[in-house]
Amino acid sequence: MSEKQISGTSPAGDGGRVRSETACQKREGYLEWPDYFMAVAVLTAQRSKDPNTQVGACIVNPENKIVGIGYNGMPIGCSDDVMPWGKTASNELDTKYPYVCHAELNAFVNKNSADVKGCRIYVTLFPCNECAKLIIQAGIKEVIFVSDKNHDKSEVKAAKRLFDLTGITYTRFTPKRRQLVVDFD
Ligand SMILES: Nc1ccn([C@H]2C[C@H](O)[C@@H](COP(=O)(O)O)O2)c(=O)n1
User: Annotated region Disordered: where (predicted)?
Assistant: First the structure.
């Protein structure tokens, strides 16, 4: 940070004849929009009770305002302590899959704007076909994702097919910085 010396009487009335003033330039190293929005998605994922995969989503409008966030979780009124969280069971009804609301769905239903047309969505995991349908119908134009770990599953292949047909772009997130630390100290 550069400082310059200014001579004259301090307007602060401190009697100083010479004072220093921080140069009027913007701070360097600030968090840029893409890293900020994906960080919100990553942080939001930390709310998930899913023991295996925590997902976060953050919907952003063209003015860079966040209009919805969500994470994967059980529907309202369905206790996290009662619902199953397992991936496999002898009966599929005893797994999490028929019940859990995906992060993207929750980001849509939590939205604080009339609509999300022209928005982009930051997600920590590539959307499935059901979320892709929601994304398309809501008018989202861009998907930015971190993990594509389910790329070989038909849910994700179908999602990509739907995005390709509808002109929705999907881009793997490239962070400017490797790590962001939240320090409460
Ligand atoms: N785009 C996605 C994909 C998955 N989820 C949720 C649904 C489950 O809670 C979890 C996936 O569990 P896994 O099969 O990896 O054990 O992630 C989502 O919210 N959004």
Answer: 1-21
